[in-house]
Amino acid sequence: MGSILGAAYASGAPLARIVAMCRTLRLRDIARWHVSRLGFASNHRLGDLIERVFEARRFEDLHIPMAVVATDLNSGEPVVISHGDLIDAIRASCAFPGLFEPVEIGTRCLADGGLVAPVPTRAARDLGAEFVLAVSVGMQDGYRGTPSNIFQVVSRAVTAAQKHQLEVWERHADLALRPDVHSLAWDDFDRADEAIEAGAAAARSALPRIQKFLTRAASVQECNAREQGQLRLTEAVR
């Protein structure tokens, strides 16, 4: 869901529209049951969601630079997509293994980027971000005890593998937020307000550190502007 919400925001879609979408979103808006050898469902319907909510259809049209991370099932390596069509990139990033069929882009067979980059902080850093704020919501399924279906088996297996990747993504983050959403399952779409409030609470608790960075960044920009002005004055005098 990170790629959907991130791209919606980066496209310039009003926050109120994004929140409204979250409150009404259901699995049927994303998935079409289509049992095949590669998955139980197709996520082609994501294209309709993007057409309805987003203000852009291509990376080049986004208001804020953004990258989407997927997993190359042939090499096992992360694939960072930052150009071209948004729909296929987001579909690939959301193709959770076992549930959704992989998405083919060019010669690559792509699946959920969370397999190799649970929180894509390195991609953000590589885009040129000076301050990287990571938001980790985990991959809990909201249930306890022995798994009762194949989706819980797969999600818990992925979660177990991701626990050993914490140091990797945290190394590229200046600040990490962890909203308390452990009681929410991956398909609790009707509990969007709880998820939104958990994110807001985590952000509020981190506001002093975020504001400290913003103040420092504004000071650096002011110094740079002053230096540029002095340089232009020197050149004019010459």
Summarize this entry quickly:
With 238 residues, the chain is of the alpha+beta class. It has helices at 2-10, 15-24, 46-53, 86-93, 121-126, 150-162, 166-170, 192-237, and strands spanning 32-33, 41-42, 68-72, 78-81, 103-105, 108-112, 133-135, 175-177. The protein has a four-stranded antiparallel beta sheet, covered by helices on one side. It has a two-stranded antiparallel ribbon with strand order 1-2. It has a two-stranded parallel ribbon with strand order 7-8.
Task: Please give a structural write-up.
By secondary structure, this protein is of the alpha+beta class. The chain has helices spanning 2-10, 15-24, 46-53, 86-93, 121-126, 150-162, 166-170, 192-237; strands spanning 32-33, 41-42, 68-72, 78-81, 103-105, 108-112, 133-135, 175-177. Strand 3 and strand 4 form a beta hairpin. The longest helix has 46 residues, at 192-237. The model has no long low-confidence stretch (mean pLDDT 85).
